Queue: 2 jobs
Job 1
Amino acid sequence: MSESMEHLSNAKRALEKKEEELLGVLHELENLQARYNNTRLDRDRLQNRIIQTKKRRDRAQILIKALSGEKVRWADLVEELNETVPLLIGDTLISSAAVVYFGVFTRPYRERLLQKWRSSCNDMEIPLSNKSVEEILSSQIEVQSWYTQGLQRDPFSTENAVLLRNTHRWPLIIDPQGQGKKWLQGLEKNNLKIVPYNSSRIVLEIEQAVRMGTSILFEGLPSYIDSTLYPILDRRACELNGSVVLSDMEIEYNKNFRLYLSTNLSNPHYSPDDCIKVTIINFVVTFSGLQEQLLSRVVKMERPWLEQQKDEILRKSYDDSVQLRHLEDTILETLSSVQTDILDDEDLVNTLNVCKQTAEEIEVRVEEAKTMQNRIEYTRKKYLPVATRGAIMYFVQSQLSNLNCMYNFSLEMFMKIFKTTIHSLGNSYLGPDEDDKILAFNFNTATRDKQLDFKIEKHITDLVENTTANIHKHVVCSLYSRHHLVYTMMLCVKILQHTNAISDTEWDAFLHGGTLKHMPKLSLFGSVLEDDAPEKSSSKSKAAQKKTATKPKRVQYSGKPIWLSTAQWEGCNMLDSTMPAFQGLTKHMQDKPEFWQALMISDNPYQLFDSTRSRSSSNVSHKSSRSETSLDNISEDTGDIGHSQSLSILPSETSPRLFWKWQNLSSFQRIMIIRVLRADQIGSAAQGFITHVLGERYTSVPEQNLMNIFKNNKCQNPILFILSPGVDPTSKLQRLLKDLNEEDDMLEMLSVGRGQGPRIEEILRSSMSRGRWVFLQNCHFGQSWLQNLQKIVYSMQLEKPNPKFRLWLSSLPDPAIPTDVVRHSVKVAMEQPQGIKANLHQAFVSGVIEQDVYNDPFAGQSFRKLVYNLCLFNSVILERRKYGSLGWNIPYEFTNSDLEVCIQVLHQLLTEYSAIPWKALQQLAGTVLYGGRVTDKWDQRTLSSILNKFFNPEAIKPGYRFTSTEPYTYWGDLSIDETISFISSLPSYDSPELFGMHQNADRTFHEHTGRQLINYLSSLSSTSKTESHDVNNDTIVLKFLIHIHTNVPEKLALPSSMESTTEFHNEPLKDADRPPSVLYEKGYVLVNSTENIMRSRSPMQNVIRQEVKYFNQLLSTIHKTVMVLGYCLQGVETMTNTLQTTYKAILENKLPKHWKKLSYQSGKSLSHWLEDLTRRIVFMKYWIDLSVEVSPVYSTFRLQYSDLLAERRDLNTIPYEEILNNGAAFQPSVSRHLERLPRSFWIGALFYPQGLLTAALQSHARKYSIPIDNLAFVHYVCPLTTGAEEVDKTSAKKAGLTRAMWGYPAIDVPEDGILIHGLYLDGGRWDGKNIVESLPGKQITPLPEIHFMPSQVKPVHKDTDFECPVYRTKLRCGRLDKITSSQNYITSLHLPSEQLPNHWVTRGLAILAQTDD
């Protein structure tokens, strides 16, 4: 048992041991299992890491590949940002200033302003970049989106869009062409509501838009902003308050609300209060923008698929750019949002990979699109000449509003004509496969199809020519005849300027002649005496000579040929000294006078250039006509030109003496010479120039055809007749109805006037629906209703009236006519026919002469002849207006009604009386019917003289001639139709003889027409772009102002003894300015105090005080302007409109308007006016000093009575310098008071010359105690003097005097009365005894001195003596624009003549106190 127990115990121990061993094995097994498990885990972990690492490697490779390009871009971007951040201060400053100030300015001025700002920032060391404003404030994608919304693709429009999108004030856009409106419609899409500014619902529309948060555009804003909009214009206050008060009603403000204002005015002027409430942005169309529009329009019509493909490429490019930008932003956003290891985010990597692949595909497409776009652009550029020509023509016609307020043309109408022209020509030049050939162009010129290129160029040329012709025809029909040549000339110039064939300098010189900016080398006033010898230069040192050589050489006028006037010679010197093409001109004129003399007498100098060029190049001698003759017969005394030699004397190009080759001049440079030398041929030269540039058909006026105008326009556009006085288009409109087989009741004619508005509106509404015509006559009389008319025209554009409806309007030119009405109307200019032939034809076909009256047998046999004479008389007095002041002092508007009533009176008198009552006819026609319109007595005299030529017993005799030839002779008793046929055979040229004029009058007429053409062209060129070589406009004006300040006195001084209530400083002349004694040899009148003591206020002193007052007012204004304008140019003062006008006038060498208001009337240019002013001042100073009772220089001389006063000659013979320097030698025994007057008065130097004549009468009346009412002047023309008694011109030059100022000193001073000099005959000349006919080319000739002798006895005049009126200026008519109210007329003189007075009356002979030269 024990053994068993022991055995059991041993067994248990063995079991325990085994169990222990088993536990050890199991523990070891567990350890091994654990190690195994750990090993497997390590293996799995390593496998997972291997897989993860492989994935990361793959993803890393994807990221490296995907972001490799981005790394470079990001690096560049980081570098750019690092560079940009320090520049933000300057860029912010510049862009903020641009948003605030840029809006109203044009692109060139904005660039100048930006450049100035940048320069200022650099000076103040403010860092800034060279980015443009649009680059700073917008992105390329944003700009492209604007382009797709309708914004024009030019930098100016892009900049405007940037300003509009970044301003914090509501924008007011200047949008006459509707470009801004078009873009806003695309920008806002359906969220924009357009409301006319003159709408009665304006407040309701604003309230609704503010509440709903929509956008609203008020268009057609006038030159002011209605106060109703003021609350809504304060944008920041509305946003802060959340509400706005409109019409006493508070409205909740929605922040999505947008307000836009637009005006159709091209140059509006808003008050400062309005300007600070809005941001004004100039959306006026630019040349490049319009050029792109027209190019797209042409290509769309010629190659529609090409333009569609271009638009599609641009659209896709924009979409791709937007998508690319979105992908780039997505990449950055994804990378920035990762929170774990970027290699473990498979979705992120896949997204980045897809973005990169898409971006690469987009980049490829963009590059392909660029290549395709370049090919398309190559094809489009072929049509660029058509678009360029169209843009030039539009901008030329848009400037025509400067000529007449009715010449306003809308871009929409222009586009319509442009489109019609392109469509009418078609595109038949290409075959079916030739389009592909164009796009296959690989920029290798060797592979081009030359035949295809030729066909394309031929078609493009046809497009350009047809576009030019059609648009020109349309515009010309809208212009008065006097503006046809202006428009066509301007068109030619702009075409050549675009190709740089005419420089801005040449164009400005042509417009303004001797303008100050073109005379840097000339003395401002030139020379005083025409025949002054050039000053000999003294010997100088080499240094001095070198210094002088660097300065512009002063042009001398000493070598002036005798056949040129001073003004012509100055113009030639200006061309020679300022333009390389004319260097050597004056020398050539001196060396080769034959050529230039032939040019001076040619009837067509422009053609003479061409004919001479042809002869020189072909070396063939041609015989010339009378008009192409040279000057071999020159009178040495008068410089008159003969007509005997032919052009064989003209120099050839190979002439050894010819150093200046005029053959190298361009066609425009020839006109520049003609403008200087032959002002009377400017018109014909312009026509030759137009023919050379565009063709002969552009010089003819197309016939107005209402039928074509009617058919080519739709019912939405009114047809506006631009009237002239006395013209009525009703008959033409009624004739059009008959031609269209319409009933008379189809046309409703209404006269616009007070109270007619509601009736007109009712008839218009009815007619628009029924398809009838409405003719509103004389719209200028209904100014209060014209805004309603504007609404009606606006509604016609939006609605669709009956296609048969037409609105016809008629109006005289009136600024009150709304601009929108004028722009959207088809304009037809209506005016009186031009020429005798046309006026006669009009009289017989217009219905003025009734058939029954004309064929009345009871009127007598002479009735038809008298009717013809009356119609011819009517034509003559109408056409006589073209001669200006030679024809009529006042251009009267005679009408057809005058002729019609006169014919009725003539018929009545001839049927009632057996004998013709000539006196009654002449009285009724000359004084009542036609004379009732005449307000000037001298014109009344002219009218009566002309009427006597046509209404006298001789005029009804067979074969009576009105001229030396027979064209106008009425030979028989003709019917109306026969008379019309006879009139058709008359010449188109109107001989001056028919008007009673001299041949010189025709030259004067052409000179006036030429000057008028240049004035019109100047008004079209509103902004001068020309600057001298190294002198800008501001410098030129500043130098001119300094010259005035230095050389023009601030006032005329009166001594205290002559002062009135006005204070004047005693400012005696310097010794150097004193007149030498020879100038006043017998140059003043001594009045012995014991015989006639001068009163303290003699009549002559009253004249001086009055004149000094006027002169000082003018001088004060001049110097005040000089001071303020000088400060403005230096930036100290603000430039006002008046100063801006003065600035422009100075550059154009014109007299500023506010100077002109205070000035004596003058037709001179500014430089010559200032020269004339200084001469007047010198004359007045001499007179003042001579007339002073007590003066430190002149007045009281202590002279020995026995030696000096015994004979009047003594003081006259004492040299002036001796009196000044040795006055102490004349010790007094008696003190005498002397009143000295100029020996001869320059009457043209006075503001009020009538005052001098009245003072002379008063002095004579006081001297002899005669009532002044009993005195009148008797006039004696003094004899001419020459030879030894001529005044020393060198002394005269030093004193600043000319013969026009000091007269003829050799003539003895009369005891009574006064001598007057400085007068000119206009239309005749003085031969020493009588007035005789003018010499050819000498319209104005000087008169000798005239003795005005007061007399109590009324003089007896011969029948041949002519009473000649005296006028201040060549203008003759009207009242002077200055403080006095005196008329241009001064007095009248009776001059002897061998001709009857009527001869000189019809000649228009008059005396002028000054000329325009």
Job 2
Amino acid sequence: SVQFKAVCDSLRLYEKREEKTHRVTIEGDTVGLDPTCGAFITMNPGYLGRSELPEGLKALFRPITVIVPDLVLICENMMMAEGFLQAKMLASKFYGLYSLLSELLSKQSHYDWGLRAVKSVLVVAGQLKRAEPSLNEDALLMRALRDFNIPKIVQADEVVFFGLLNDLFPGLNPPRVFDEVLSECVSAACEQSGLWPDPFFTLKVMQLDELLDIRHCVFIMGPPGAGKSTSWKMLQAARNIRFPENKVKTVDINPKVMPTEDLYGHISMSTREWKDGLLSSVMRDIGRIPNEHPKWMILDGDLDANWIESMNSVMDDNKMLTLASNERIPLKHYMRMIFEIRDLKYATPATVSRAGILYISTDGGSQWRSIVGSWVRSRPSTLFEDEDRETIHGMFEKYLPSCLKHYVTDLQGVVNCNDISLSVSVLRLLDTILTRAIVSDVAAFETAFVFCLIWGFGSVLTIADDGTDYRKAFSEWFRLKFKSVKIPSRDTIFDYWLDPKTNKFESWKSSPAFKVVDFDSTVLNMAEVTVPTAETSSVSYWLELLVHGGFHVMLAGPAGTGKTQLVNGLLSQLKPERHIKATVNMNFYTSAAVLLTSLEAPLQKRTGSIFGPPGAAKLVYFIDDLNLPEVDPYGTQSAIALLRQHVDYGHWYDTHKLALKTVDDCQYVSALNPTAGSFSVNARLQRHFSTFAVGMPSASSLITIYQTFLDGHLSSQGFNSAISSISSNLIKGALAVHKEVSETFRKTAANFHYEFNIRHLANVFQGLLVATPLVFKDAEKFVFLWLHESERVYGDRLVDYDDLNKFKAIMQSQARKVFSQFNIARFYITGGGVNPDPLIFCHFADGIIQSAEDLSYDQATNLLGLRTTLEAALDEFNEMNAVMNLVLFDDAVLHVARIVRIIKQTGGHALLVGVGGSGKQSLSRLAAHLCGFSVMQIMVNQNYSLLDFKTDLQNMYNKAGIKQEGVLFLLTDTQISNEKFLVYLNDLLSSGNIPDLYSKDEKETIINGLTNKAKGAGYSAEPASVWMYFISKIRENLHCCMCFSPVGPSLRVRARRFPALASCTVIDWFQPWPVQALASVGKKLLANTDLGNPEVMKAVEYFMPTAFIAVNKTCKSFAAAESKFVYTTPKSYLEMLHLYNKMLSRKRALMDKGMLRLQTGIEKLYKAANDVVELEANLRIMLESAEEKRQVSEEIAKNVKREKTVVEVENDKAKVEESKVAVIQAVVASKQAEASKDLEQAEPALLKAMAALDSLDRRDLGNCKTMAKPPPGVDDVFASVMVLLAGINPNIIVQKSGRVREKERTWEFSKKALLGNVNGFLDELKSFKLNIDEGTVSEMNFKDIRPFLQLEHFLPEVIEKRNSAAAGLCSWVINIVNYYDIVLTVEPKRQALREANEQLGAANEQLEVVRSRVAALQERLDILTAEYNAAEAQRLEAQNTADKGKMKLELANRLTSALGSEKSRWSEGIERLKLERGLLVGDCLLAASFISYIGPFTKSYREALMDNTLIPLVASPPVGAPIPM
């Protein structure tokens, strides 16, 4: 709205002549402004998936309501434009027909009688008019109305439609105009594809072609199996046959496989970059193909308001896909979009009106006949001859119509199946068993056909929720309806198998799928063995045939009926070189992306974009819990859509690379629970599966199963005959108990886990198989074990004591029937004040804490011994871990035994359900300690993520599977910060195998590390086998203990979304603490509290559980009356106890503090009276001392004043001397600066002279000595040097005046005086500057040198040409003379500076003398001042002490006089506090109870609880003495 408002404002200010108004700034970018621009919004408010315009944007537009147009006038005008002469009359008929159709036809979502539909028909009518201008206009319009609308009319509405059409156009029935050549091509395409060229199907293909000619978007609708996909495929093939040079290209996409943003593209929020979508990418790529051949985009997926609304701009006349990136992708004139959809339930009228609609109905039954015909004609001649094909057609016509009609009217399958699905199921079964030998024998052929027909229809039948046995009903109907094939009359038709050798029906026990299992419990685990029965043999038989035939199979049935076990049993028997298996467990959060990861894991790339299983094997995916994924608001599941895309088209898309992946050689076996998840799956996927209903086995089958396990265990373990003889009765009793429990305790919304199936029955026998002959030596004890295991499996799931009592009554009743010879009643005694004997079997019954491996399962005869054992274990636990202060009352001991029983089993996981404070976590830790397991928990914080949870699971897996140590994973419901944690937990509980827990490299590392161990355990070295070994160790060593609360819907919702939480765990429901538990805990927590009288202690101990129970009863009545729920849990009880102890100790401490304060006050009064007398004596002494110190201080002050005057005088003298010295210092500094400045001017000359010396070479000087006659000027240079060194060099002959004679200034004298020692000569030259500075050079030398300097040739550059050594000496002479001249001018200043420094030194000496004298005087003054300050301080201190003494004495007198009367009052206060302290026991008890329990109630309930329950319990308790209050 901000951007658009900027445009609106700029348009308002636009001036043609002012250039600055011709641009607009939007979000910082300045762009040109077109003054003619405008914006229009069209919208249909209130449709699903559409949002309202923002108020800020809405305010910038002017709203206009568009009314319903006058269709008659529009029709008249358009028909006139198309050339109709009778436009007015025909327009009236047109409008009348559409008005009546909208009112009289059924309300189908795909019917559209609006303006777009009107326009489409009129365009067709115009084309017909121009094609046949001579034909009657009534006939032309009728043909257009009939041929254009009939494709979308359902069969039930055809009568009304044709009736109205004939009424408006009586006597007219113009022939249908269609492309005969294309119709023949359609028939040819069907022949090539092996399809039956049904006239109805051919008509629908032609109608689709007509729709594509006038509409660029078409909806193909119809029930599953109606032929929607086949219709466009055959039209494509027909067009390719007719126009081989102009072939149709198709691209299919399922829009429901991915989110809408991945379909169209979106802007990444993290990188702010545009990520292209699949649909937009495909549409763009198709448009870029450099030809104009027909191109169809097939959008095969259910409609929802999210993705279809974004297609509106493509479906209308704009033909433009507009993306969020502002890209516009056109749908070109040769491109079409075909939507293959289930229905238009979530499409708006605007969407429906934009497309042509082809509805394919299945009501006529042509589809199943076409499928049968296609199947018959596509079978090879080696199987069917021509007469055989006629025979099979006759069989289908004989049996199938009646069966389909009966199924639709009287039967109900475990999942919804239509006539096409049932027909195809029969054909699949025929494919698996038909051979040439069977087909050639007509009788055998019909028998085999009937066998497949029975199972094709009956496989989906089962017992309904209301108890109706639809299999039995179908069996009875079939026997009465068809009698040509003889089926044994005993039992149902589903209880017999057709023996292909004899062509007779035999019991399923004679089939190859049935075999007798010899169970040896010393070698095998019960969970690893599948015992075949008549029911399971039939399913296994067909399952094996269908899997080997390459068909998709589905097992449907409630939880615990053995679906997964059946499939795993089959898959484990498949030959690895022919079939590879992969298991995928669905859950609530399984999306298409998650499922795709699991599906691609076992695949390998073959060539290009083709993928498949490794080698030549076929991959069998087992999809468990197929219907569990979340259903979106539009009734679809993306994971199911992905599976359907693969099954229908054989490929899926890589959403990251936007590339097609063809996946070959795969098939699916699935299992679903029709009572969970979405209950069913998309019917378009369902029809691809042959579905078998798996129900609860019959009683005879259950006896067979558990007789095998129990007898095998008893014989293999060597039990005595007394125990072996009772196995049959025990199994009968177990089945009777299971049946009665299932009927008594029904599943409800609250008790969602009251679902008892074969899994629970198996758990009972799993517990019996733990028994060993060394422990169980008599039959009675073994029967007691059965009673105990039944109570653990069934009773521990029950939510309250009422249900538990009902269950115990069932157990007692059934046990009496089968084992009347044993004394069972002692465990179920009620009433009479007699407690029943405890029925306990556990792993620590002998009272000895053994190693985890040595724990034996035995009966515990009394709770006292168990409590002693657990207390010893608790002490041992507390020594090694954080201390747990537990009270092991009877229920706590029983719960520990139950938890140990669960986690000692392979794959045993516990679900502990109880309110807060029940002790779930603490008892789990103790149980883990008994079993030798380490406890691992997740540490959840605000940053804890799904990745962290996976890391924690990996650590547990590594410890349990690689190190093979026992691990107990303790998880509470409050730690589930992300519901997706349960995705991994569900897989862990169900199979132990979490698909994406490890990466491929991590998985390989684990397999490599465990290969040797796996081989030692009997597994092969194949990676898959080693991984199975790893998972087996996980199930053996890793156990979950989940501690959940039953309060609220969380547990129920999670169990529905993740079935393994309830079905793969043993539930231990923590009942409310009994009185004994409450009393035990209260007694322990009050043990260290001093309550005074032991009788009062008894009363308080009685109060605690009694008050808690009373409050619980009030909670129930409060909920019933007020519909408000108040919960009092063991945690509330514990908090109340802690609050009471804390409150009592704090109040007592306050009372003790008050009494101590009063007692201290009385003692202070006595002490104050004695202190007053002592103060008076001390005060007199202090006053005398203060007077003496005052006199001493005054004397010292006089001396200090006198000495201070002398110091000040001397100090003034020192300041005068300092000022004089400062003046002298300034003069000296000035002179020193001036001299230094002049000397700096001499420095360059000196440097040049020294540089000249450095340029002299000793060898050159030596060579000069050898010259007899030097070049002109060289002798003058050496003579000048000799003049300067006169008096310095002893070799130079001088006169008495120090001068060198004129005659001796020759070359000969120079060589002798100077060059005799060249090194010494150079040293004299270098030290000549020091001689000048020291004044040792005669002034005469510098006077005699002047003539030489005046010579024209006495220049270094002149002499250089004659002799280099002489040039250096020449330069030295010139520069050293210059240096001397400058130093000579500075010398007077130096002399003046020396005199000033001498004067300054004298002044400084005088100043130092004065300062020394002042310092001595100051030091003496400081000593006197310090003495004075000390004396004055003593005087002030003495004075202050005396003043304080006076005040203290005065205050003490006032205090003793004022508090004289308080002594008696404080004494009375102490007695009163002692009395109140004694009443704290009852007062705090009532206060703590009120705070902990009564706060949530209304006033009336509070008063009733206080007055009628709590106060009477304190005032007059039935036990002990009244509690003081």
